[in-house]
């Protein structure tokens, strides 16, 4: 059926005909994108025109106008209809009201969202002057029916008002855009973005149209229309997939939207959305900067003319580097610059801009992108130095890098960048796409350059550490190969290339080992020392670890993690200096531990103490101490089920476990003989745990102890209580978590078998693991708990009844049984 046939059906059959024709149009698989939006707008135009004509017979000086998105002739499947019934005031008010009802009610009867108003031209202009959103909608006013001259007059007046008031209204519009971006975030980084309201979305595209209509400034047009079209196409598919008027691209709808658009998967969908949003965001940055420059120039120029006796003063141009100058608050190319003969110019200009904290001129970037010659391989020393200077410039690096990337200069310099550009990271811990995370890591690393002997290697490793995420398999392994190639290409010598490759390969080594392994185990420290190889690499890796975590998101770094990594670095440094750690003897119990153990033996029940742990800030030992959590010491007569009981009680009280160490303490005969104990044996279990309150304050030690007593004697149903709590807070719809995975770690330990658990974090997870290990008849010596976002990665050092590591097959059997339990 053609568009003409659909319109004829709508006209012949009234509202029901329009509804059928609309449904038929939306179900046409062969038509999508701008053609479908235009056809839907045209179909709606004809229907509304028919409603207007039927009700306006005999009325003069009245017109029906589409505004906003409908005014632009774009209708998504569930878009609102924005309508203005305009009248010149000469018609009978009751007749105008009756006409409005003849139009509005059929729209409502079909369940379509309607934004409507009835105004005279004067009222419309007055409302627009008071409400910026109304004025923006009227800028796209389009005549539908009635008095064409009335509509044209309003359009002319509104445009004239907008242009006359632009110096006042554009700053107001910019402020609205900034407030919206603060609330909604940046579309190009969000996993569940609002396609309309987030920065770089459809609202910003509309704002750029309004700026252009002011004649005060204009947005960079290259790619802007395509970017806006792409987001509109995604919104259309979202409306069809959900059947709702929503702009939120939720996780659970992304696969269906991708399929609707014929895309490979949800990641491909997000990457296209991010690329489009990046174009709009960059155009917004350039446009608002130009608006500010023009408004400032208008304010200053009359005074200058008066002082200079007329004429236009020449702009000041301050040199920044060879071929690069500052003009009007931007970095531009010098008149003598020759980008076609100077391949280092893009990096030199970028470094100069970042170092001075100024934006790169759009014209300069485009001129360099059009004329730039490829750098020779390997790069000349100046190019490498300018790259390092750019990366070490701190926060201004981000804006400058985005300007280069918008015109394709980054992929010209670093072709491997294309695979990580706009690549989403489906991990709640990460707040950036892969490429932005790499730049953020360089920004964080720039603040740590005074801690290392080779700041250039730190900054380049920060830029490259996740470069392998664009390839299949372990991104650290793939990244090592890419880093070798890139480092050689940009001119590092063989030794430095090897160091950079090692940093990329092992960029997760320190934090994963520190949070998931027993640092008292010499085998752990030796394995890290062997991987690192030298003190210089260890120093760089320590700084890279911190920069990477800080650039990931708030959940990835803390005082606790920092202290664990620093402890590991100290131990590894000692091994690299020649110290060979011996198997440590079991440390004698502290006075506090011994006191608790004796009391537990004497009473035959658990006793405990809570004590806050702090340490001075790393950069300022004399400053205020930072909390590392709370030390929870528990002593309980040796008996089965201690680990799951303690873990369950802590989960009930919303305490997060960070580390857990368990040891059996045999009390001296003199103590046993002198105490009348209800315990049958002289062995007491000591549990030394670090915990933190999930939120709120810590529970009282007495309450913890009372619940622990009940858990150990079986009168407290921990599993039932945790299940009740989980049922009271239904899970939010979203992606389905992957199944848990339990493995036996390959890193050896002479004292225990290391079982690693990766699972979706949930209340009582440690309790379930402890119970499963208890059922497997293995003893947990220590637990190292790490939670990143919704993912728990826990390592358990376990032994058999004889306090020895488990044989290989037995260890694998325990791991399989634990995994099966967690999958239930």
Strand and helix layout:
Blueprint: H1 3-26, H2 34-55, E1 62-66, H3 68-71, E2 81-87, H4 93-109, E3 114-119, H5 121-130, H6 132-138, E4 142-146, H7 148-184, H8 202-214, H9 224-242, H10 251-260, H11 266-308, E5 318-321, E6 324-327, E7 330-333, H12 345-356, H13 362-371, H14 381-391, H15 396-406, H16 409-413, H17 434-446, H18 455-464, H19 475-489, H20 494-505, H21 509-516, H22 522-532, H23 535-552, H24 559-576, H25 591-603, E8 607-615, E9 626-637, H26 642-652, E10 655-666, H27 669-674, E11 683-693, H28 701-713, H29 718-728, E12 741-744, E13 753-760, H30 765-775, E14 779-788, E15 791-799, H31 808-823
Parallel strand pairs: 2-3
Antiparallel strand pairs: 1-2, 1-4, 5-6, 6-7, 8-9, 9-11, 10-11, 10-14, 12-13, 13-15, 14-15
Helix pairs in contact: 1-2, 2-4, 5-6, 5-7, 7-8, 7-11, 8-11, 9-10, 9-11, 10-11, 12-14, 12-15, 17-18, 17-23, 18-20, 18-23, 19-20, 21-24, 22-24, 23-24, 26-28, 26-29, 26-30, 30-31
Description:
The two termini are 53 Å apart. The protein has an eight-stranded antiparallel β-sheet with strand order 8-9-11-10-14-15-13-12. A four-stranded mixed β-sheet has the order 3-2-1-4, sandwiched between helices. Residues 615-627 have low confidence and may be disordered. Helix content is 54%, strand content 13%. The radius of gyration is 34 Å and the shape is globular. The longest helix has 43 residues, at 266-308. The protein has 31 helices and 15 strands. The protein is of the alpha+beta class and 824 residues long. A hairpin with a 2-residue loop joins strand 6 (324-327) and strand 7. Residues 631-723, 754-824 form the ACT domain. Keywords: Hydrolase, Magnesium, Multifunctional enzyme, Nucleotidyltransferase, Repeat, Transferase. Its EC number is 2.7.7.59, 3.1.4.-. Its cofactor is Mg(2+). Belongs to the GlnD family.
